[in-house]
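User: Could you check the structure of this?
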Amino acid sequence: MLDPHELAGEHVAVTRRFFLQCGAAGLAAWQLSPLVAQADEAAGKAELTAELAKLEFLTKWDDFRLIERGEPLPYTHPIEKLREVGLTQETWKLEVVSDPDAPAKLENPLSKELGTALDWAGLMKLAETRAVRYLKVMTCNNIDSPLGMGLWEGVPLRDVIWLAKPVENVRRVFYYGYHNDAPKQIFRSSLPIGRVLEDPPGEYPVLLCYKLNGEFLDGKRGGPVRILVPDAYGFKSVKWLIRVALSNGAFGNDTYATGNNDVDSWMKSSARIISRPAKVKAGQAVPVTGLAQVGISGLSKVQYSLSPQEPPWPQDDPWFTKADWKEAEVLLPPTVWGGGLPDGKIPQGTLGFDKETGKPTAWPIRNTIVHWGALLTNLTPGKYDLRCRTIDASGIAQPLPRPFLKSGGNAIQTLQLIVEAT
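Assistant: Sure, the predicted structure tokens are below.
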């Protein structure tokens, strides 16, 4: 579970609006929240209300959590080495070739040997007419909470694959990041060719990504160029991209497969509590706030439950289907998106946003996050278990329809709440 303090500033900014709408009880509860004190301390130089009004929905660069591979980490090499291996914009080159172990037929392979590899100037030329932007949450399939929420920009991978003129015997796309020329450190992933060439209904294209929140990627975030798969967990979005191989192989070659992971599992919907007091007095209004990750199944609602710890929950109901679930408030889209964007505004032309109004065409947006809040009142003394869950767009409750960890973590979170007598 992500340390709540890592999300305190941006999360409290968003959820403050909800509790103000709850009236006097909500305002009093919100003012007692420990995260408010944390945000006040962090802001320091400005009034608390001004800080919280910024509504940082997108994660700033320095606040993204990183799952990193490599020893040393590729971006930590001296600049001379980075130039040598093609990890600067002026030296980056991407090969699109046939897989030697299961060859595909290409009429125009992009290779360094032939002098036809795609360079940075070529990518930027494509970007003049083919660039797209969209929102995506970056999350790990074995970690319960998001790593960061960003606005990503790039050129669809399929546009570059077509430059290599594939003809036949293409079943999968293998792609590789630079990892110190050390075989044991290779980080690679793969996709069916169908997912790359044709987007499923409602999904966005797989990208050769070069920007995050309007700025060119640095090495720490996988630059100059990384893969971005909008509907997948982070291991599919390989950093430091240097090579794509079109394969006639029938199976993936993903590095994560060696860790007993499901490498073709798309992102799940799930909810997590970010802020709640651990101990309150009877009769005190209790603010509970959290994030919900909106996966491929979409999101219709977020729910919470409060159950006495005694008697223990029945073992034959591991997914808490019989709990007294109540609906939480899913917050509306922000007016200021944050993340370091100019004026906190989403740029015109971003996929999923109306060109005239600049507002999302649907809410929640799949493959992103939402903030939610609930206000617990009229509590009696005792020890309770507090839980939350999502209901997806098909009406299916978390952790179903895919409850298995190796295809993405979405177990129902349980936190203790103690209510003391006044």
